[in-house]
Amino acid sequence: MKKIIKNGTIVTASDTYQAEILIEDGKITQIGANLPALGAEVVDAKGCLVFPGGIDPHTHLDMPFGGTVTKDDFESGTIAAAFGGTTTVIDFCLTNKGEPLKNAIQIWHDKSREKAVIDYGFHLMISEINENVLNELPQVINEEGITSFKVFMAYKNVFQADDETLFRTLVSAKEHGALVMVHAENGDVIDYLTKKALEEGKTEPIYHALTRPTALEGEATGRAAKLTGLANSQLYVVHVSCADAVERITEARSEGFDVWGETCPQYLVLDQSYLEKPNFEGAKYVWSPPLREKWNQEVLWNALKSGQLQTLGSDQCSFDFKGQKDLGRDDFTKIPNGGPIIEDRLSILFSEGVKKGRISLNQFVDLTSTRAAKLFGLFPKKGTISIGADADLVIFDPNSERVISAETHHMAVDYNAFEGLKVTGEPVSVLVRGDYVVRDKQFVGKPGSGQYLKRAKYNTNSPLTKDQTLSIN
Ligand code: URP
Ligand code: ZN
Ligand code: ZN
After folding, report:
1. Closest-lying ligand to the alpha carbon of 89?
2. What is the model's pTM?
3. CB of 150 closer than 6 A to ligand 1?
4. Coiled-coil region(s) at which residues (predicted)?
5. Mind listing the pLDDT tens digit for each residue in 131-163?
């Protein structure tokens, strides 16, 4: 079915202009004025901006963690994502030591296949390196199209990998064309500090933050960056929360290392004081890395503006307050880490970033979509509005106002970490490969309609992985 989008203002990472978009067979086939619209359904975008669909490079859907499983699965999670203007997620596939990687990937396909309403890919967690893993990695890249690996430097005795594993993953990724992602916190020292806090009877949520100081994120970020330089490889630091980590990334980039950084809405808007809310409410704000002292927010915003951080992920990892977060009522180390954000990633960045003059409209598109497409092997099929691209499009009303609330959100979880935050700007309609998933703020998609994305390899020499943000304004 043909569609034509009329009367909107197209915004990409580099341009803002008025034009019509013709969609045929799920692809953008023409962009211009007075396009031939015979037989095409008209999508009226009057008064709206038209963005490429958001790409969320960091989600945990249907993931076992902290003695429970995230509340949002690939159905509720991707429905909520679509309402928020995200048309692609890249989710973290967990692996088990001693088991073939292909088994883990199969489990993630089974979780997602009949549920996703938007397109999706996987990053693969690497927790050990041995001959079996090394032999499987080329297959993972070439056959599964999984071209990014995740190494956790924290969560001791759970997900944490040692430095040898990180280094050898970096070497292998360089050889075969993948991007290595790290959760950068010093898990060994955190383990010591948390045990000590518990011994001293410090059990409340705030101790989650106090036992994970910024120095430990900075140290791990710097270590990962140095190992990347030594391996002459490539690194993407997920969920950067503080100035210490931004400094290490900036330093590495100025030395010419291929290092990228992502932050998340929670670190831009919320702060450590939220963990002190009474009646255990602080547990709603337990993320790792933790929320930081407020002054770090300005550093993060500046890093987004200057291009030292290049993407905004949600780190969607939702747990109910009742029945899940309260596993840690008497011991903060048992509070499942993470929160529900997949739905409001674009609205928060638009409202707090573009509307408040902290970033430009084109940077907004780069941060929420284009850059992730380039780094994770999806560009130009995804992440931009151009002829031949998938018609993943967001019709966005820049003036609509709403208050974020669990009462109205579409995630399955029983609270919203941004409850009460007033935001300006929200998606009205969202299309994935030319089909409406959200139409006039109503869900019209179908579970199982989302397609698995095999992604292209990471190529250090490609213009897609060169730094262009600084020239965008
Ligand atoms: O607290 C967080 N970030 N939970 C999700 C898992 C992770 O570390 O990304
Ligand atoms: Zn993490
Ligand atoms: Zn995460």
Report:
1. 3
2. 0.98
3. no
4. none
5. 999 999 999 999 999 999 999 999 999 999 999
